[in-house]
Amino acid sequence: MHAVQVKAFGGPEVLGVVEVGEPVPGDGEVVVEVAYVDTIFVETQIRRGLARAYFPVVPPYVPGGGVSGTVAAVGAGVDAGWVGRRVVCLVDGSYAERVIAPVGGLVPVPDGLDLRTAAAPAHDGVTAAGLLERTAVSPCDRVLVLGASGGMGTLLVQAARTRGATVVVAAREAEKLALVADLGAHATVDVSAPGWVERAREVPGGGAEVVLDGVGGELGAAALPLTVGLGRFSRTGRRRGASRPWTRRWSIASATPSSVSPTSGSARPTCAG
User: Fold this and answer.
1) Confidence label for 51 from pLDDT (cuts 50, 70 and 90)
2) Could you tell me what percent of the chain has a pLDDT over 90?
3) 240 pLDDT tier (thresholds 50, 70, 90)
4) What secondary structure, in 3-state letters, does the chain show?
């Protein structure tokens, strides 16, 4: 069986195709014939050796974590009815023709959804869903999404809209602003324009109950005071140059009276019903 292996820390040139043994499912496991792999930016950082404090992998290793495909075989204790079913799952080392996955982690792919599309939210979709649950986004909320043109940001915009929230996006470049507007953002703010912070405060009517920061660094720090009253501020990811203390302190953090002071913005909107 073929797999792609990281032979040493570095750029794409350290990736190479190797022959590995066929996966054999154990108790409660299945073999998935891989159709598509969900690749995210952090995997390139891991490959370059820039994230060893968080991902202690050592070359050689097979990268990747999310796949879509078809169940090819099952191990002991697994219903044989899984064989032939299309699924999405998270695994260790997804850059391979076939992978092992726990049956409890399989998500069936609905009829009518192609496997390429199904694989795309394997990582970011889980994170986005967790963020919206943790921050309890509701129709009462004004939500500011910072850095919304990336994989997870585009999902957050759409999912927050689905929850009925008022969504304002802060990003840069006309193409990216147009993209998030097409995805359902009620308004956009260009962070490269002077006075963007005040603009981001004014557009939703005095700040936001929920700020979802996917950028960090100076932009993330500037967005924190836009959280209204006892709102919720979440921080995910880390852009190049962002400070590590900021990233660690605000990773999926819920605001409290001691961590976020009331701003001069308007109060939380009254929610009907």
Assistant:
1) confident
2) 71
3) very low
4) CEEEEECCCCCHHHEEEEECCCCCCCCCEEEEEEEEEECCHHHHHHHCCCCCCCCCCCCCECCCCEEEEEEEEECCCCCHHHCCCEEEEECCCCCECEEEEEHHHCEECCCCCCHHHHHCCCCHHHHHHHHHHHCCCCCCCEEEEECCCCHHHHHHHHHHHHCCCEEEEEECCHHHHHHHHHCCCCEEEECCCCCHHHHHHHCCCCCEEEEEECCCHHHHHHHHHHEEEEEEEEECCCCCCCCHHHHHHCECCCCCCCCCCCCCCCCCCCCCC
